[in-house]
Each structure stands twice: as C-alpha cells, then as structure tokens.
Amino acid sequence: MPSSPPPSPDAATFTPRAAALLLARCASRAAAAALHARLLRCSRAFFRSPYLANCLAAAYSRLGAAPSAVALLRAVSRPNVFTRNILLSALLGSGLLEDARRLFDGMPERDAVTYNAMLSGYAAASRPEEALRLCYSMRERGVRPTGFTFSIVSSAVGSALHGQQLHAAAVRHGLAHLDAVVSNALIDMYRRVGLLQYAARVFSCMEEPDVTSWNSVMSAYKDHTLSSTVFECFLSMRSKGFSVDGFSVSTVLSVCSDAKDFSKGDQMLALCVKMGFLTNSIVCSAVIDFLCLSDRLSDAVQIFRGMTAWASEPCNALISGYARSGLMEEATSLFAVSMRNGVVPTEFTFASVLRWSSCFGLMEQGTQIHCLVCKLGFQDDVIVSTALTDMYCKLGLTRHARKIFRAVAAKDLVLWNTMLLGLLQNGRGKEALVIFRRMLKCGIQPDRITLFGALSACSLEGLVTEGMDIITLFKDKYRIMPSLEHYTCVVDVLCQAGMLKDAVNFVEDKLPKFSAATFSSILEACIIQGNIDMAELVAEKMVMRKSRLSLPYIVLAQTYGARCKWEKMAGVWRLMENQRAKKAQSCSWLCINSHIYVFTSEQILHHGKGATYEVLDLLFWDMMDQPKNREGLDCLQLLFDYP
What we know:
By secondary structure, the chain is mainly α.
C-alpha cells in the first residue's frame, strides 16, 4: 500500500479534475491525507467549490477515515446534495445514527442515494421498524427506489406480510425479475420468513439467474430439509453451465450431513478435491463436519492438519466432531490451541464448546469458558447467552441460568425456549409456566418446541385444565397443530392427575396410529398408582398391537401369575419371545478428573471402577449429612450393594 499519493502533475496542470483523479487512486489514509495537505499548500481556492471537498471526503470514507470526512464536509460553505449525501454516509460510518437522522431531516433535497444511505444505517443498527417506515416515506414523497433500495429493505423484513408488500413494489417498478440483485434479495427474504413457495416462484421467474440465485434457492430448500430438491438444483445448475463456488459446495455438503446421505457426500468430497475447494475455510469446515458425522474422525483430523492457515470455521467443526465422539479433552485442547494460533473464537465456537461441556457435566471447564466469554466481550451475544443458559440448566445451576437470561436485552425465541426447557429439566414446572406466560406477553411468536415445553410443565404440575387451554390457544391463535410428542404430553398430564381412563380414551380418539411409547407412559402410570385393572387393560391393548416393548408382556405375565393363570402367563412369555421384545437399555456416567466413565446396570467390572465407587461413597456420606436427602438413600444403597 502506498503511503503517499501517486506522482502528480506540476502546479500549472494541477487542476481540481486532476486532483479528483488522484484521490480516486489513493489506496491508504496516509496517501489521502498527504494529497489533502498538498492541495491546501497549493491554494485554498480549490475548496471554494464543493466538488473537490466532496471527492476528498468520499476518499476518506472509502478508506475508513469517516471522522475526517465528517470534519471536512461540515466546514463546506456551499454544500450541495452530493455533499450532504457523502456527509450522511460518513456520519453513519462513524456510528452517529442520530446525527445522521437529524441531517437527513434537515436536507432540502433528497434523492434515492440519500434514502439508501439512511436505510443502510437503520439496517446495520438492527432497527428494521425505522427502515420500513422510511421506505414508506420514500414512496409517499415520490422518490423512485433503485435495486439497491429493495436489497437493503429486504434485509429488514421480518414478517411474511411485509415481504409480500415489498415484492409487490418491486414488481410495480419492474425490478423483481429483471434485476438479479433484487431477485436474489427477495429469495433470501422469503427464505428467512419461511415462504418457500414464494422464493421458488421468484427464482423461476428470473430471466437471467446467476450463481448467487442458485445458491439462495438451494439455501431455502436446505432450510426446509428438502434434501432431494437441493441435489436436483445442484445438478441442474451444473448442467446449465454455471460454475459452482465454495458456497454451493458447502450447502450441498451440509445437506448430505443432515440427511446422512454419505454416498452423495463422498461424491461432493471428490468434487472439492478436484476443484481445489479445500483451501476455502467454509468448504473445509463443511467437509470436516461431514466426515465427523460419517464416523471418519481421523480423516477429518487429516483434512484439518492439511490446512495452510488457521480459521474459526474449521476449528468449530472439528471441536464439535471431537465432542460428539466423546473426546472432550481433545475438544477443549483444540479450543485452547486455536486461540494460541491467533484464531479469535466466534459465538459459534463458544456455543459448540459450551453445549458439549454441559452434556458431559464438565462444570469446571464450563465456568472457565464463561469467564473467557466475559473477557472477550461476548456476554451480550444472544447465541452465547443461550449456550450459557443451556449449560447452567444442564448442570442444575438454574440460579446462574436465570441471571444470564435476565441480562439479555433482546431475547429471541431460541433463548426463551432454552430457559423454558432448562427449568423443566430441573423439575421447576411452575417457574417454566411463568416464563411461558412472560414470553407470550412480550409478543414472541411461539413454535412447536414452546408448545412441548408448556405442556410438559403442565404435566409436571398436574394441571389438566391449563394444558387443554394451551392446546386450544396454539390451535386457534398461532395455527400450530399438535403432533405426537404434544399429545404424549397431554397424556402425561392426565396420568399425573390420575385420570387414566381419560388418558386411554384421549389416545384412541386423537392419535390415528398406534403409539407404543404413549401407551407405555399410561402403563407406567397405572403401575405407579397401583391401578392393576387399568394396567392389565392397557397391557392387553399393547400386546394385541404386537408391541416390541417388553413392559406390557412383563405386566401381563405377572398379573396372570398372581391369579394362577399359568397357561396364559406362559403364552405371554412365548408371545414376547416371538415378537423379540427387548428391555430398553440405559446407562449411567460419572466424570472424574475430566474422564467420563460410562456403565450399564449389567456391567460388574468397568474401567475406573475403584474411582467410581469412591465418588459414590463420598456422595453417600454427603447425603447422610443432609436429612432432606434421606429418601434417596435406599436407591443409592442399591448401587453399593451391586458388586
């Protein structure tokens, strides 16, 4: 980069036009400042006209010296519309949004460039409401929007209604199908608001789609888990002569990972090697993620080690791959090494590490990462705050989770759902319902996960009426129809309230297909509540439907045995064997000195046995000192009795 302006003509030929050409060629702030000083030394008459001041301010803004541009233009004696537009952009570049708005309101003349600059400022400041209002004002004042206008406003659209209105305006101005930039922006907008059919229609109406158009529509299909359509788009894109780029390949690879289509993923991997895309960090991260999901962690590590430079995306992918394979020590080690190699962690890095730390109960590592989050200034990021909330909830530290949750100013749906489900995991049903009501009062649009959390809270507290009201609310107001998991929650609500017969009738009325898991929940509730007759009825229904769960066969066999119906009991055992019904296998785990020990109830000897039982011994004596924990001693004693 040059530190001084390019060679200039002599004083006789040093005209404002020649100076403007030199300013356009400046490649550094120092060069622009040096040329500015030369102009002042030659003659201040150069700045009697705003032309040269505009050129100099534009150069300062382009080179990242917006404050210098602001200081220069505020001293111009006879500003014109170009002067004010450059000053407006410079103020926005300096982060002075309110000052820019005051200048905008006081401008005697505004054109499309003026409005576009102000719209960009609102979009960059995440203030979509003001951007949309300004767009309506622009239309009322008769200023014709450009393609750039629609591109900016589309990024601020957050609802389907506003998106359709913007699309209609683009059609009226003849830009919706002729301008590729506008069409691409509309496709991306419809993808964000969830209107896939509209995105596909915009793409099909484009006269000359480009690579960005294909990438945008493939991203829309990917978000709706239409993997086969993404593959078709990719093949059609190549057959029509378009050159795929790194974004195209990474999108298809991500679809292969999500759909677990390893054969197509291997073909994409070969294409990446053939076209040299592995030097692209985005593509490399998609490849690493695909290899980790297909149980080829060693290949992923080899790809990572072959990279010429460290980048955050591949590091995030490999950290997740290590953690997904249970190698938390390697994951945290890579996290530390990447920072030592100059890779600044992103919000996704923290989210990945915190997620897996909480899954393995690594409290010490989780709190250390929390300290690093605060040190690097990520505590206000909603993605990181969501990961921290989830971690502390999984570790049982709901007080810390609530503190982080309250500190987030702009809570999104994911954070609300995380707090709701986190409280449920810790048995705090009433608090979860309070969070649910607060969420609706704040105007957050709930989804199916929210419905599941609210119904689970009702189940935990045995609130039958409130659970039914929530189902009705989601149907009527939010147009969310319950699925099997939601109906299972309603069944749990009825079972908790002792309404076992109503639960059976509800399942038979609402579910079109037999659900072994739902009937199993009712059966367990019957056993817990000691309703033997209802347990026998439910078990018979499950056996008649040829359930492959072992519980109904065991219940029926024990019931027949208690009544001395030996032939029926033997028939049930034979039927269970014919259906190959199996008992659900579960496991327990303990973390000792950052090592995870996993074992099932059938395992007598396992790695780390001595250390495991020492920890259990400490837990046992700690519970002996806590009278309120006496009720759990019998269960824990069984573990010690087990050899």
